Structure to design on (574 residues):
């Protein structure tokens, strides 16, 4: 099987455009009628549904920001009543509040379809065993890969994350062909295999669908060599759908964005759309969702879009790997981390720490590791190790609760974290990723 | 009734102890005891000096995080079992030691044991009841 939905994946650009236009016109009317906060945005700039006649009018519409999701937490942006919402997913937002996304049955079906297309790109079919080592939960990775593989009719091993020795045993014993996980976890599996004295020939894997964090082509080479597979990049975000918003084909020349569902734009610093080949902020409009559709959602991810025919036969535009962010969000082990969340957590710790901190991200032994340097206050210090450790653990817990991932807390002397003039150097990211 | 000690928080950073001893030296402060509790990430330096108040002041001025802590000090004979005789009394009473260090006066065969427990007042009372010689301050 080379395509999952050949007709749609290889649709002519003209036909795709008409399909997008038709869907956008319907969507704008639907949003205006059902989502009060978005209707208000339209009213504020004097736009009515009737002004949107085709896909070129997209640029007239107001943006949706991550803060809109936060401000309308938890259900303010839902376009359907709760009885029609089948599932929630979410990711961490800037204020420590979850970014909640509600999916209807139809949204889940679309998501499963685009993920099925993506997995077929990597070679999945009815006879394949697909090993899903993305976490299952509010995070979209596990369920996204799972639903796509299920739709194809593959056999799924829902291994979720953790217990690497067992993962390797399951991959080998169940004859898994496709591995779905984060690229850093794929490398970790390779590392563990080496420790167990296993070589790439000892496992049946043929391809990997890796995403949820940025990675380099060097990392791809490393994974391909050490696991003996074809490693492909998948992109997604829960706000838009989850994994499968775009997927790299075996030509390995960018990820095809499934434009019949998700319309991309790349914007310059002035928020005006750029031409293909120019680098800017990626913005999506979901033209087929009905649970929580988003118009011109600003992802803050920086990339480049490429048009032109791809050797794989698909006509959908390709996006480059994500080369940066327009905000200070970090992605650590697939989790979004905002320095502002950390700052709020430190303030909640009270007078045992100063609000000064430094975040250090390392890729140690191929897994991302988050360390936070904090300054213990003069008042909190006592002469016993047990008391200082108790303070460290209290800070650790507060930060874990705020970020959703563990961080190593390094206590420093007050006034020891470098203050720079103007913007403080808060983040030291030692990972090579872009 | 307690022996005063200063405690200083030290980041695990090369040269940090040297910076501290320089401050004490420049201010002509004499160290009587010195010990360091080290963990993977930080250390706590504990010291008794000939002028703890001045030591606190100059260390804080130099940017160190320091605090004064009270220790129980006892004097025992510097012979096998000298320390054990004291500790077994505390153990019987269910007192746990947070940390302990000692030094010996070699010429008169006496040793000074300094320690910190959570229930300082109760420990002190137990020791006195058992006729252990408790020190008020250290003079050498």
């Amino acid at each position: 099987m080379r395509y999952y939905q050949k007709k749609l994946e290889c649709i002519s650009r003209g036909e795709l455009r008409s399909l997008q236009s038709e869907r956008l016109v319907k969507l704008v009317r639907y949003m205006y009628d059902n989502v009060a906060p978005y209707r208000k945005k339209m009213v504020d700039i004097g736009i009515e549904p009737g002004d949107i006649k085709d896909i070129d009018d997209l640029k007239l519409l107001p943006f949706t920001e991550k803060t809109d999701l936060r401000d309308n937490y938890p259900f303010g942006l839902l376009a359907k009543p709760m009885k029609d919402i089948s599932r929630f997913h979410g990711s961490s937002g800037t204020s420590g509040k979850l970014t909640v996304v509600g999916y209807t049955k139809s949204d889940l079906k679309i998501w499963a379809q685009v993920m099925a297309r993506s997995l077929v790109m990597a070679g999945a079919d009815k006879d394949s065993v697909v090993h899903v080592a993305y976490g299952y939960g509010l995070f979209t990775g596990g369920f996204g890969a799972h639903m796509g593989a299920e739709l194809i009719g593959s056999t799924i091993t829902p291994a979720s994350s953790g217990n690497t020795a067992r993962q390797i045993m399951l991959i080998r014993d169940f004859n898994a062909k496709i591995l779905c996980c984060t690229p850093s976890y794929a490398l970790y599996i390779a590392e563990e295999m080496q420790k167990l004295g296993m070589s790439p020939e000892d496992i049946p894997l043929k391809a990997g669908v890796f995403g949820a964090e940025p990675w380099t082509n060097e990392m791809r080479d490393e994974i391909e060599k050490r696991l003996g597979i074809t490693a492909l990049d998948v992109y997604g975000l829960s706000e838009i759908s989850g994994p499968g918003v775009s997927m790299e084909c075996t030509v390995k020349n960018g990820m095809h964005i499934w434009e019949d569902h998700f319309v991309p734009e790349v914007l310059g610093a002035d928020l005006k759309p750029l031409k293909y080949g120019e680098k800017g902020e990626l913005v999506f409009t979901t033209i087929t969702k009905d649970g929580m559709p988003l118009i011109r959602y600003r992802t803050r991810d920086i990339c480049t879009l490429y048009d032109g025919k791809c050797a794989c036969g698909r006509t959908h535009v390709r996006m480059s790997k994500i080369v940066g962010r327009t905000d200070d969000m970090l992605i650590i082990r697939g989790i979004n981390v905002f320095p502002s969340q950390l700052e709020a957590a430190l303030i909640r710790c009270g007078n045992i720490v100063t609000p000064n901190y430094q975040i250090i991200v390392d890729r140690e032994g191929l897994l991302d590791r988050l360390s936070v340097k904090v300054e213990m206050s003069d008042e909190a210090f006592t002469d016993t190790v047990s008391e200082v450790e108790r303070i460290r653990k209290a800070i650790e817990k507060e930060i874990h609760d705020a970020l959703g991932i563990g961080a190593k807390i390094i206590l420093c002397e007050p006034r020891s974290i470098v203050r720079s003039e103007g913007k403080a150097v808060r983040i030291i990211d030692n990972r090579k990723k872009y | 009734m307690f022996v005063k000690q200063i405690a200083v928080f030290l980041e695990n950073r090369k040269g940090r102890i040297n910076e501290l001893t320089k401050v004490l030296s420049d201010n002509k402060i004499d160290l009587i005891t010195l010990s360091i509790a080290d963990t993977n990430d930080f250390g706590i330096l504990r010291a008794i000096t000939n002028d703890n108040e001045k030591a606190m002041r100059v260390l804080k001025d130099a940017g160190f995080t320091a605090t004064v802590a009270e220790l129980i000090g006892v004097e025992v004979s510097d012979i096998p079992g000298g320390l054990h005789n004291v500790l077994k009394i505390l153990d019987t009473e269910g007192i746990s030691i947070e940390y302990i260090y000692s030094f010996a006066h070699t010429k008169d065969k006496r040793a000074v044991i300094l320690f910190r427990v959570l229930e300082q007042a109760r420990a002190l009372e137990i020791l006195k009841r058992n006729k252990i010689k408790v020190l008020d301050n250290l003079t050498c």
In short: Chain B touches chain A at residues 5, 7, 9-11, 37, 39, 41-42, 44, 46, 60, 63-67, 69, 98-99, 116 (CB under 8 Å). Chain B has a mean pLDDT of 90. Residues 3-70 of chain B form a domain with the VC0802-like fold (CATH 3.30.2130.10). Strands of chain B lie at 3-11, 31-38, 42-49, 65-77, 97-105, 110-117, 133-135.
